[in-house]
Amino acid sequence: MGRVPIVDTLQRVPGGMMLIPLLLGSVVRTFWPGFLGLGSFTSALFRDGALPLIALLILATGAQINVRQSGRVLAKTGVVLMAKTVVPALLVIAYGYAFGREGILGVSLLAAMVAFVNSNGGLWLALATQYGDEEDRGAYIASALNDGPFFTLVFLGLSGLGAIPLVYIVAAVLPFVIGFVLGNLDAKFADMMKPASAITVPFFAFALGAGIDLRSLAVGGVTGIWLGLLVALITGALTYGAYRWLLGERSAVGFAAGTTAGNSVATPAIVAQADASFAPFVAVATAQVAAAVLVTAIVTPLITHYLHRRLQRGAAGRPAGARA
C-alpha cells in the first residue's frame, strides 16, 4: 500500500501541526464556507470545535504537572504575563500619550492595545509541546488570563469600564486546575491524558482558522501586517529575554508568546461598547487585528524554530559542563 507522509510533513514545518491546519481552515472559510455550515458533526468539529478541544488540551496539560513542578509553572506564568501583557501594555499606553487615540501610520491606540496585550494560547501550547516541556505548557495559564478583552479594557480605561466579572477568569483557568488535581490524585489519569496534545492540536487549529477570512488581510492592509510583525518581534523578544534573564533558561519557547489571539478580533467592538468614544476606530482596528492574528501565526513559529535550532547548535558547541 502507498504511504502519504502527512504527519512527517507537518512536523518538518516549524509549528506545522498548528500552522498548516490553521491556514487550511482559513482557506476553507474564505473560499468554501458552505462546508463549515453543513451541520452535525462536520460543523461541530471543523467550525465550532476549537474551544472544547483547547479546553481538553488545557486539562490534559494540567494533569502532567505534579505538585513539585507547580511552583515553576507559576513562575513561568508570571514571567510570560509580565513580558507579554504588562510591559507591552505600558508601551502602548506611552504610544497613546505621545500620539493620541489616532496613533500614527494608521495604527490607532485601540488596534495597538488589542494586538499587543493578548496571546494565542493554542499556538503557545502547540509550540511548547514541540520545543518546551510540561512546565512550559502549564504556563498557558498566562494566555488564559490575557485572552479576551479584560486587560485591554483595564489598561485602556482605568475607569471601571474595563472590569470583567471574576467568573470569566475562573472559567478560563478551571480546566487546568481540574486536570492538575486529577493528575496528582491518580498517576494513571495523567498517563491517559498524555497523548491529548498530539491529537487535539491540528483539529483545534483548523477550527481557529475557520474563524478567519483571508480577505481581512486585504482590508487591514499593510498597516495590519506591520502591526503583526511588531507584535511578534517585540513581545516575542521580551518574553524570550525574560525566560533567559528572569528564569535562567535558554529556551526558544519564550518567543512563542509573540502572537495575537484569534478571538481578539472581537475585542475592538467590545471596547466600543464599554466606551463609545472608541467607536470610530473599530472597523479598521478589527481588520488590523485580524491581519495581526494571521501574521503572528506565521512569523512566530518560524522565529521560534530558528531560535531553537540556533540554541541547539550553541549547546552542541559548548564543552561539557560549560555554563548555559
Automatic annotation (TrEMBL):
InterPro entries xrefs: 2keto-3dGluconate_permease
Record's keyword terms, sorted: Cell membrane, Membrane, Sugar transport, Symport, Transmembrane, Transmembrane helix, Transport
Pfam families on file: KdgT (PF03812)
Chain ranges passing through the membrane: 12-32, 44-67, 79-98, 104-127, 139-158, 164-183, 195-212, 218-240, 252-272, 278-303
Protein origin, superkingdom: Bacteria
Family indicated by similarity: Belongs to the KdgT transporter family.
Protein name: 2-keto-3-deoxygluconate permease
Biological source species: Geochorda subterranea
